[in-house]
Structures are given as C-alpha cells and as structure tokens.
## 1
Amino acid sequence: MDTLRGRLLIATPAIDAGPFVRSVVFVLDHDDNGALGVIVNRPLPSDVDDVLPQWSDHVNAPVCLFDGGPVAEDSALAVGVLAADESVTVPPDGWRTMAGRVGLVDLDGPLPSAGQLVGLRLFAGYAGWGAGQVEAELEEGAWLALDAREGDLMSPQPEDLWHEVMRRQSGDLRYWATFPSDPSTN
C-alpha cells in the first residue's frame, strides 16, 4: 500500500462505538512501522487560553483544544500549516515536516512569527496504529482513505467535517453523508 501520509481516514458506519465514531483523521505519518494521525473533527470544551495561553493568539478558530485521539491524551500536539507565500522560506523553529506544508510545531519552542503559518491547531492526544493495523482496518471496511483538501485540517466548522467529506465524494459514497447517527431510529 502507498503511504497514507497527508490523507484522511474517514470512519465508516462500521465503527459504531468508541473514540473513532464518525471521526476524520488526518494522517501525519505512515510507514511499515504503523501510522500516526490526529482526529480533526472533535473540538473539546477546553479553551487554548486555559491550557496554553501563550498559543491562543496563534491557533485557528475555534480557539480550543481538539481531541486528537485515544493515545497519550494527557499530552498536547501542535499541528500547523505553513504559509504558501514564497516569501516565507523559513519554517518556525522546532518545525517538523509531516506531509506537504503540514507539520508539527514544538510547543516548548518559540512562538511562530507572523505569516509563517496559515493554520495551527492543538490536539490532546493522537491516533496511532501498529505495523499493518491500519491496513487491516481499511481492508475490513472500518475506514475510507480519501484525499484531503487544503481546508480540511483547519476547517472553521470541524464538527461538520465528516458530512462535508462524505458529501464531496462521488457515487454511492456520497450517500453516506445522510447515514443516520442511530440507524435504529430511521
């Protein structure tokens, strides 16, 4: 399988319990050893200002922490998108490129300078899979691996992202956007 890095994993209705129900995961890293990503459609009620106040002016709306996944939920991860402006040639100190213009920002390092990033989100925890695990779950039909669009990672309405991504698909996948949260009430 080609790398899933920079793509979205969209939970199918086969995942009907647990932390991944209707989740949209942006895959930050994927190789033979496994995969790592963050759930991008789960804003938490915690304001960034309450947890990491120095970063609150740098994150995109909504200015809150996001539930990045069930692994290491007591730690924070900063995911940023570099500006596409060619005059910005130097990424922030502590930058680690993950996929294209998306990367990790060291929360213990200096704050990014104005114009270096067009987006930044803070995640509590992350999603992780061991070697071959995500491939097996894709084969079982638990996930769809779909192309990410530029605005997906920093969507201003992240709670609508699962429906938006499904709606933009072609064929029968598009109809999944109307799949009820609880099929027994349909």
## 2
Amino acid sequence: MLDTEFFRRWLRAADAAVTREADRLTALDSPIGDADHGSNLRRGFHAVLEALDSPEGAAATTPGAVLVLAGRRLISSVGGASGPLYGTLLRRTGKALGDAPEVSRDAFASALHTGVEAVAALGGAARGDKTMLDALVPAVEALTGGGTFAAARAAADTGAEATIPLLARKGRASYLGERSIGHQDPGATSSALLVAALGTAQGGGPGE
C-alpha cells in the first residue's frame, strides 16, 4: 500500500530530478519551444516543496490531499503550459484518490489514468502528438494490472525517446511543422522524470 509519506517522497524525488535535469530540459525546449521548460518546472516543484512544508501542507494528511495541494501550487506558480498541465495531472489524480489514508498501487494507477485523461482534455492532445502524453500514457498502461514502477519508468523513457521522429501536432512545437521532427519532446522527457521518481520514492532507487 502507498501512504501519505510515499506521495510526499515522490514529490521530493520529482523536485530533485527536475532540478538535476533542468538544463537538459531547457536545452531540449530551445529548438522547439520557449527555452524555459526546465527553469519553469524547477520553480514549480520548489514551490510544491514549500507548500508541503507549510501549515497547509501539514494539514494534508492523505495521499489525495497531498497531490491536490501540489497540483494547485504548480498551477499558481508556473507560467506557460507546464503549470496548468502538470498541475491538472496531480490535482485530478489526487481528487480521484479521494480521502483514503493509503491506496493500493492499482488504485493509484486508476487515479493516475484519470489525471492523464484530464491532461489530454485540457491540451486537446493524444498519444502520438509529441507531448507529455507520449510518456504518461504508456507509463499508466504499464502500471495498470499490477505493473511495477520499474516497468512504468521503462515505458515512459521509451515513450519520450519515441517522440524524436514525430511531427508535433500540439503545443508550441506544432508551430514549427516539419522542423519539429528530430527533436525529443521536453514535456515527455520531464514526464518520464516524474514517473522515474516513483521508484525513488519507493526506496529501491530510480528504477525499482
């Protein structure tokens, strides 16, 4: 079972990963975006940790409450598309978890699926459009039915790498048309980092 502390560890691991990879994310964003993906997410996840350490964060005593708080903070602190998209992912996942003090991995996979669907609706995107969904959708598929965090990480990494030859159909990169081909999508890459952080939170290292 996954308790509240697991989800707090997940968000801290995500912050560490985004901080470590911020320059790479921005480099990926430079040719097809606004060259700010890494810095935006770093600021956003730092704000999430500040929220978790605040009195409001102390009052978040369930997995769902932790993720809803994190999602709200991302939406309010990150400009551009990243804040609303990542914020929606976490907030809707948290709402789907409800008030349970701990959740099974299957319940988390189902809730995460709800969050991913909300991201797809918000952005009007689907898998194959060269967005964060290219990492998130296969990750959720890998988790569903008793899959491991290691399997989810591998699926997300593969999905992110598979965006390189794709033509962007949504987001800032879509404005470039065929020039978007040949570049790995930064949103899919950062989403893969978020998925990898699940293994870190579990305590077995990034891929366990």
